[in-house]
Structure formats: structure tokens, C-alpha cells
Write a structure and sequence with these properties.
Pfam families: DUF2786 (PF10979). By secondary structure, the chain is mainly alpha-helical. It is 64% helix and 6% strand.
Length: 421
């Protein structure tokens, strides 16, 4: 009789194949177990052990706990994601190497409801999900197959056990402790909740103005220190529906905040590279503007004549693409106005222009980071499939104008789709 590890390996190989009957036969073998008195417990332990090992191999390949959790929910289902969280908690209990603080912060948020005793993890998960033995084993094998199949991605921060893991600064994950960011969050929350376009215009515009000023202050502060920081990165979800439009919005928000964005459409996220304060800004703005764009799209859809489902989908996508491009222009206008004002103040204070060279150097560092992590990116042109949707999306973005800095409006351009890995 095969041992537990062999039974798991056979079931995994069958799931990866195309013979459905063979996969079911191997699942039946897992149900039977090793034939020993503790055969079921041995199978559960073997499954968990292999899942923990698979997770440990992902960390040096660029994956972070939030990435694995998000993709498991996207590719499988929430209960499989909960199993992964249980396995990540178990894997963390076994880790002896230095663990960066940001890593534990991610795990703490994901595993707040996970038991900490580490015993009978699979059995406890099965009971909590209300699954019978067969369904639990099938879900566990499918989850293991997914985790073991994940490809290498860009390493944005030193993972556990590597050089610099304990000294790496947390990029783009600041949640509290900054009065400015608290003000920005409050402004954006009001912009999301209001039904008056003029009010949303003022609130979101003020948020971008504060963000731009904060970014400039951070740049000047860093220029006067010897910290030797390098640009970091964050990953933002671009799940369906309208994943391409969401990725375009990420790109526009990133560009307005001196960041670079690369879309990995097959994995359902966009990677944003930049300096810590700018990454925080992109996260905040993208999240808020996605809410605002979706609300405006739904209002616009209700006002137009009803049509086929396919027609509505094309209209929605064109609407969101136009909204993203127009908002991007407004964001850049606000940023340029804040930069111009700060540069004039810097020149008067320092006796010479010093801000623009600092920003240029930081921008070049971000582009170098992009070339290092994503040497093979390509750019795709944006296509418009519904003129009415495009016009409505542009109008909605105009109603949410961000031109609060008094700067000149940029001529409208239609750039390509986001870079894709």
C-alpha cells in the first residue's frame, strides 16, 4: 500500500492530467488512506506538509502572502483561500529565519481568524467549511496544484531569510500614523459617498493636491539624507470584469504620481513601482477612483437605452477606459501645478532650482527599476468599441475634474494600454 506522501503525489499528478476518471480513482485512494489505523491523519498531514513546502518555495520567487491569497480566491474560491491562510500560518510557525515586519503584518491581517495551535489543520478547516471528506480532499488537492503551478514574479522586497529582509523599508503599505494620509483618506471617502459631481471634484482634487505636496516634501527630505533607498513596489488587483480598464486606471494614477505600472493580466494584478510615499498615493487614489468610476458607470448605464448584454458590456468598457484617461489628465495637471509651485518656492529658498533635478533623478531610478524587474514588457494600443460609452465616460470624468491647482490643462492624448508582462 502506498504511503501518504505517495498517495498525495499520485492524486496531484492525476488532477494535473486530462483523465477525469483517473483523478477520481486517485481521490478515492486518498479517501481510503494508507490502510493503517491512522491512515486518514497521515494523509491530512502529508497534504499540509506539501502545501507548506510549496508556499515556502514561492516567497523567494517574488510572491507575498497577499498575492497568493488574492490569486487563490480568483482562480478557485474563498474556501480554498482560507485553506491557504491556514497553511501560511502553519508555515510561519515553522520559519526560523529572520522575518521582516511587513511580512508579519500581511500575515496578521490575513490570518486573524486562524487557530494558532497548529494541530489537525486540515481536519479543522474541513469542519469549519462544512465539507464532507471527499469534497475537502478534492479542494485541498486543487489548492495544492494551484500553489505549486505559480510562476516566478518580480521580487519587490527581500523575502524572509534573505539579505536585507529585516532592514527593508515597507513600500506602499503605510496605513496610519500620518496626519496627511488621514486627511487624504477622509477626503476620498467623502468623494466616494457624495452624489454631487461638483463636491466630488473638489474633494478628490484636494486629495491629489495634498498627495503631490507630500510627495515633493518626501523627495526633498530623501535628497538631503544618505539612506540609500531604492524604489519599491506594490501589486493592485485588476480582477474581472473589465480588468483591462482597471489596469488602465492603475497606469494613469501611477503616471500622475511619478510611478510606473506593469499589468500581468493572466495573474489578475498590476505591479506599481515607485517611491514609498508615491506608492501609498497610488493605492489610495486607485481604490477611491475605481469606486467613483463604477458608480458613474452604473448611473450612465441607467440613463441610456437598454440593449443587449453584449452591447452593455462594450459600452461599460469604453466608459471606464475613457474615464481612466480623462482622470489621468486631471491628476497630472494637479501634480504639475503643485510641482511648479514647490519648485518656485525651492528656488527662492535655496537660491537655485533644486526640486526638478531631484524629481528627475527619482524618476530615472524608478525607470531603471522597471527595466531590471520587467525587461520584456510590451505596450498595447487602446481600442474604442463604443463611441457613446467613450463620450459618457469622458463627460463623467470631466464632472469629476481634478483641476484644483490652477495649472494649465494638458492636451488630450490616447496612450497605449498598460504594459503587460
Amino acid at each position: 500500500m502506498p504511503d501518504a506522501d505517495e498517495l498525495v503525489a499520485n492524486a496531484l499528478a492525476a488532477v494535473r492530467g486530462t483523465d477525469v476518471r483517473q483523478a477520481e480513482r486517485q481521490l478515492d485512494q486518498l479517501m481510503v488512506g494508507t490502510g493503517a489505523a491512522d491512515g486518514t491523519t497521515a494523509v491530512d498531514a502529508a497534504l499540509l506538509r506539501r502545501l507548506v513546502r510549496a508556499l515556502g518555495r514561492l516567497w523567494p520567487r517574488g510572491w507575498q502572502p497577499v498575492d497568493v491569497d488574492r490569486l487563490t480566491s480568483r482562480r478557485l474560491d474563498p474556501r480554498s483561500a482560507r485553506l491557504v491562510r491556514e497553511a501560511m500560518a502553519a508555515q510561519r510557525r515553522e520559519q526560523a529565519e529572520p522575518i521582516p515586519a511587513w511580512w508579519d503584518d500581511q500575515l496578521r491581517e490575513l490570518t486573524a481568524d486562524v487557530r494558532d495551535d497548529g494541530h489537525d489543520v486540515l481536519a479543522a478547516w474541513t469542519a469549519a467549511e462544512g465539507l464532507d471528506r471527499a469534497d475537502a480532499l478534492r479542494a485541498a488537492v486543487d489548492t495544492l496544484a494551484l500553489v505549486e503551478s505559480l510562476p516566478p514574479i518580480a521580487v519587490l522586497r527581500p523575502p524572509p531569510g534573505t539579505t536585507g529582509a529585516l532592514t527593508a523599508r515597507s513600500a506602499g503599505t503605510t496605513r496610519s500614523g500620518s496626519p496627511m494620509l488621514d486627511r487624504v483618506r477622509a477626503l476620498l471617502a467623502k468623494a466616494e459617498s457624495t452624489t454631487f459631481p461638483a463636491e466630488a471634484e473638489a474633494l478628490t482634487g484636494k486629495a491629489q493636491e495634498l498627495i503631490a505636496r507630500h510627495s515633493i516634501d518626501e523627495a526633498l527630505l530623501a535628497a538631503g539624507s544618505e539612506r540609500g533607498d531604492v524604489p519599491g513596489g506594490v501589486r493592485l488587483s485588476t480582477d474581472t470584469p473589465y480588468a483591462g480598464a482597471k489596469a488602465l486606471l492603475v497606469q494613469e494614477v501611477a503616471a500622475a504620481n511619478r510611478c510606473e505600472a506593469v499589468w500581468s493580466d493572466d495573474l489578475g494584478f498590476a505591479t506599481v513601482l515607485g517611491w514609498p510615499a508615491d506608492l501609498v498615493a497610488v493605492e489610495l487614489l486607485y481604490t477611491s477612483l475605481l469606486v467613483q468610476a463604477t458608480a458613474a458607470m452604473l448611473r450612465g448605464r441607467a440613463e441610456r437605452r437598454s440593449g443587449s448584454g453584449r452591447r452593455t458590456k462594450v459600452w461599460d468598457e469604453s466608459f471606464l477606459n475613457a474615464f481612466a484617461l480623462r482622470i489621468g489628465e486631471r491628476l497630472r495637471t494637479a501634480t504639475e501645478a503643485a510641482t511648479e509651485a514647490a519648485d518656485q518656492a525651492s528656488a527662492e529658498t535655496a537660491g537655485a532650482e533644486r526640486l526638478l533635478p531631484v524629481l528627475a533623478a527619482r524618476g530615472e531610478a524608478v525607470r531603471e527599476r522597471l527595466d531590471t524587474l520587467f525587461p520584456g514588457v510590451t505596450r498595447h494600443r487602446l481600442s474604442v468599441r463604443d463611441a457613446e460609452g467613450w463620450s459618457s465616460g469622458t463627460s463623467a470624468a470631466d464632472r469629476a475634474s481634478l483641476d484644483v491647482g490652477g495649472g494649465r490643462k494638458q492636451p488630450r492624448q490616447v496612450p497605449g494600454r498598460p504594459d503587460r508582462r
